[in-house]
Give the backbone structure.
Amino acid sequence: MYQDPFFFNHVNRDDPIQISRFATLSNLRSVKDRKPDKDGYLVGPAIDLEEMLLLPHAMMPLTLAEDPNAMDTLRDAYQNSETLFACFSRQDFNHLTETAEPEKRYLEIGLEVAVGSLISLDNDRESVLLQARNRVKIEDIWQEDGLLMMRCLPVKSRQRKSNSLTALKRAVVNEFERYASLVEFINDDVVEFVRSVEDPGDLADMVLSTLDLSEADRLAFLIETDGAARLEASLRNLKHEVRLQELEAEIQNRVQSSLDQNQRENYLREQLTTLQRELNDGKPIDPEYQELSEALAKISLPQEARETVNKELDRLANTPPFSPENALISAYLHWVAELPWDKETADNLDINHAREILEKNHFGLQKAKDRILEYLAVRSLKPKRNRQPILCFVGPPGTGKTSLGKSIADALERNFVRVSLGGVHDEAEIRGHRRTYIGALPGRILQTMRKAKSVNPVFMLDEIDKLNADFQGDPAAALLEVLDPEQNYAFSDHYLEVAYDLSKVLFITTANTVSSIPPALLDRMELIEFPGYILEEKIAIANQFLIPKQMEENSLDGEPILFQEEALKALVEGYTYEAGVRNLEREIGSVLRKIARMKSEGKTLPAEISPELVEELLGPAEFFPAVAEQNDEIGMATAIAWTENGGEIMPVEVLVMEGKGNLQMTGQIGEIMQESAQAALSYLKSKQEAFQIPADFFEDMDIHIHVPEGSIPKDGPSAGITLATALTSAVLAVPVRHDVAMTGEITLRGRVLPVGGVREKVLAANRSGIRTVLLPRKNEKDLREVPPQVLKKLQIVLVEHMDEVLAAALVDKPISRKPRAASSRAKKKKSASDQQDAPQASETSR
Ligand code: ADP
């Protein structure tokens, strides 16, 4: 009796047709295998399944039509409950077979099959269910009365038992169990049955019949007669299939769980929205809403802002939480809630208190301190008066602008905030972006107000000279609105949308130079200059403020460490190059850091810091002060220029050579300086007769003006008299005094006009070893700002006309010594640098 639960396995129990077949299938149990004849051969009727490969234990429904002979064979077998044989013929099997009818070739391996059911579908079609049983090796195939007959030998896999085979079987069974647990169509009966199978080949066949194999694999297994080899292959296939099934399950799981999560969320969200709608009149349940509405209720907002806030709160309640819209609205409301609207600090308007604080924190800066005290005095007399000019602190970096601003806040007992406007070129940076923009935020003014936490902070707007206007709108215009007391009580920020009152803020602006402050802004501000410090002032600031501050920062307070004056001088002159003291503070910090390290390493600390120790700690000096020329030169005069870092001396060179009357200018010459040079030349030409310059001189000679590049570009009209002096010197061949420096604008008629930055310029001249400084007479008043100890060292000559300039600067009377001037220069002693600077000059003498 043949028992094989695989029979039932492929039946879909929900399908009535298959169930009826299932009933008939049980008949197969009684189909007996054929008995071999005395020679061991099996003989019987056969059908040609052509290319429908079947593995033992597998079942296959087969529809037959137009082949009456094959139908007869099947019908007989079915009715007699007998097995029959199946063979496979196909063109591409040729290489696998020797069983040959010349015109038709069969696979060498065939099958013994049982016929399960036979159903007539219609007149000439019948459906039959085949079940493959054993492999047979085909010996012969022939026709008999029109029916196909086969003689064959049963394929027996006789395997000897071995440990490795047992292990292999176990592995296959285990893997099969796993597989069965992953797929639905293998039931427990099948698993049970598989466990009981002894023969390795049978086991392989059973397992393989449940797998979805490729055509090629099926062929390979069909013709493989070695059971152990099949079993091994079945294990490989099983594992592969299990892996696939697991992956599939995993993917399914993932998809399913993400679907579930989504559904859950949607469901909850919907519920929440519904609840919120229901509760809108009462109390909504969103904690965000709750928090915001409570926070906003506590603030006293202006009417307009209150209305907007209420509207937005309503919108917040009506948008689902976690939606982008909801996030935007709540971000906005947070902004409103965090801005100061009604918190105001009480001013301390005690002038004496203010003076104390300003003096305590700052050395010098008398003008600035006085102005600030006046400002506070006016306020204390009329506290409600807001129309005060905006202060603008102008000066080089590190001159104490920020720290003085902070001291004002301290004196008034107000909060202090600052924002840098350097590089701002877009109006939106001041005023924010509209909320319709993604990632919109308020502008810098309101962002800084949020930090201020009160409506009346001291608000420092740094670097207003570095604002740029471009196509994005003019930030200066927005700033005007900020600073204008007529408008700033209702400052409009694009993001906030409602007016914000800035009128209680005390604005202070800072700039390095006045020239690039937008004029409309400049109009509204009162300038307070921070001019930069001289050496003595820097040393005093270092001793009184910077050193104690840095000692504390480097945990050295209380240590008896003293900076020698010479050491501070070395730091100022050799390691920094600035008008302020920012780098000086940094260098002092570096020195003290190194000493702090010595302390932590347990070394003995130096009691005094000498210039030598400074060099030892910081390395060799980096800067060498610009020094005046050593010799009186023809065609070389010294100007003093103003830069953002303070003053600087600047040599101007002129060479005259044979040519065609051209004027050439090289080096660092800006547009305004070029115009000055033209004016200087015109002045000289107008003096041709007085200076006894030959008639055709300017037609026959070329003039070359050169201003060596400095580290900082300089331009402006103040080099005018220097250009004229150098030119005159070159043309007349009269040398210029090397220890004279000058500044002043020149007119065509030789008048000298006043210039700016006198204090810095005089200080620079002093630093550089100049003895005599020529200044426009109109600048006399500015000398009050120059420290007296500097004035004592210098001879200041106030001039109104070029004649006076030449009289003071040239070593001789301004009368042509040698008309073709350049030649005399050759006879003069020349410095090495001169020769390098003008190698192209062809000097001629006639
Ligand atoms: P600015 O804002 O002009 O660039 P800062 O206010 O930042 O300069 O000053 C740089 C450093 O120099 C600060 O530590 C400041 O305290 C110090 N400083 C500048 N001027 C003085 C001064 N007159 N008295 C005391 N310290 C000063």
